[in-house]
Amino acid sequence: MVKLYFKIELKEDKKMKAIVCTKYGPPEVLKLREVEKPIPKDDEVLIRIHASAVTASDTFIRGFKIPIQFMIPMRIMLGITKPRRPVIGLVLAGEIESAGTKIRRFKPGDQVYGLTGFGLGAYAEYKCMKETDSKSGCLALKPANLTFEEATVAAYGGLLAFQFMEKGNIRSGHKVLIYGASGTTGTTAIQYASYLGAKITCVCSTTNLELVKSLGADEVIDYTKEDSLSPGAKYNFILDAVGKSKTSKLKDACKKALAPGGKYLTIDDESLLLDSNRLNRIKELAEAGYLKPYIDRIFKLEEIAEAHRYVEKGHKRGGVVVEINPAIF
Ligand SMILES: NC(=O)c1ccc[n+]([C@@H]2O[C@H](COP(=O)([O-])OP(=O)(O)OC[C@H]3O[C@@H](n4cnc5c(N)ncnc54)[C@H](OP(=O)(O)O)[C@@H]3O)[C@@H](O)[C@H]2O)c1
């Protein structure tokens, strides 16, 4: 009897729950499956994932909604009719379960957060990752004061927001405008600009005006009601956190509202960098109390299609989280 019980345990240990993207298409192509649990190589850690996220990027990959100029290289990179790596998911926060012999930065029990990049695989109970940055991801110790759920928002929103905001050379007293301030990137960008002492103007829709004020906006503009800026408004730095696909008269007016020497950047101007040093800076700011990730909704792994439908509408507030192996404290 004892032997039989032991055998079943071992078999179960080799499997994990994951979301498989069966082909490129609508959210329904995402299926909950039992798949092989990954085994770490000498230069990898095995992460027990507690939370993942559904981001704009996840919905682009699932639906293969890629700008025409990137279609061929991305198909080659990701897979022709479906992702070559069937388990998708870009963001994770979890705990190191085991570490290969060549791992130096992490040890079992460490709480980590990061992005998996082209390695995908975050919609699963476990994921193996290298400790070095590459196109297959970046990993760092999680901010100690954030939950795993909050850490997923800090990882994705933080990497995007910090990468672009750092280019603004923002100083105390500078006037900063964030267009699309209520999403994952926008809500993080507000807090980063506030930390730097900027005077912040945020553009968002009516329902999000109070949210962005609560995060640090000094002035708000409702893009559903306004199509121009106040005469004479000039900004040292403007971040378009919505992207080039969405245009408006107001956005055109923003582009022209730069102070001398000012800079306008859109979130599509360069590729997201997977950078663990930046994750460490995000951790420092979060632990110092300057960054509190905003969570819109939390879905269970089996509700992933619903989460994708929600995010695809393009109006999430902060981040949308997927709970996987909920942490028990
Ligand atoms: N460069 C890269 O490599 C890279 C990587 C990943 C993502 N991205 C891009 O980063 C962007 C931001 O991602 P995210 O997850 O932070 O986005 P998100 O959370 O989905 O936020 C979208 C924001 O857009 C606003 N919005 C939607 N429609 C709008 C409209 N017509 N006019 C003005 N604002 C509008 C929403 O505000 P309301 O709800 O108030 O309307 C919300 O604040 C995405 O476009 C994504 O493609 C770029």
What radius of gyration results from the CA coordinates? 21 Å
Number of strands: 14
Strand content: 25-35%
- Unreliable stretches: 6-10
Structural class: alpha/beta
Helix-strand pattern, N to C? Answer: HEEEHHEEEEHEHEHEEHEHEHE
> What composes the largest sheet?
7 strands, mixed
Shape: globular
Q: Mean pLDDT, nearest integer?
A: 94
Distance between the termini: 34 Å
Helix content: 25-40%
> Treating each run of at least 4 consecutive H or I residues as one helix, how many helices?
9
Bound molecules: NADP nicotinamide-adenine-dinucleotide phosphate
Descriptive notes:
The protein is of the alpha/beta class. Helix content is 28%, strand content 27%. It contains 9 helices and 14 strands. It is globular, with a radius of gyration of 21 Å. Bound molecules: NADP nicotinamide-adenine-dinucleotide phosphate. NADP nicotinamide-adenine-dinucleotide phosphate binds next to helix 2 and helix 5.
Entry keywords:
about 325 residues, alpha/beta, 7-stranded mixed sheet, 5-stranded parallel sheet, about 30% helix, binds NADP nicotinamide-adenine-dinucleotide phosphate
Question: How would you summarize what this structure contains?
Answer:
With 329 residues, the chain is α/β, with parallel strands linked by helices.
Write the layout of secondary structure elements.
Layout: H1 2-13, E1 15-21, E2 30-36, E3 44-54, H2 56-63, H3 71-78, E4 91-99, E5 111-115, E6 126-130, E7 138-141, H4 148-165, E8 175-179, H5 184-195, E9 199-204, H6 209-215, E10 219-222, E11 235-240, H7 249-255, E12 258-266, H8 276-287, E13 295-300, H9 304-312, E14 319-323
Parallel strand pairs: 8-9, 8-11, 9-10, 11-12, 13-14
Antiparallel strand pairs: 1-2, 3-4, 3-6, 3-14, 4-5, 5-7
NADP nicotinamide-adenine-dinucleotide phosphate (NAP) binds next to helix 2 and helix 5.
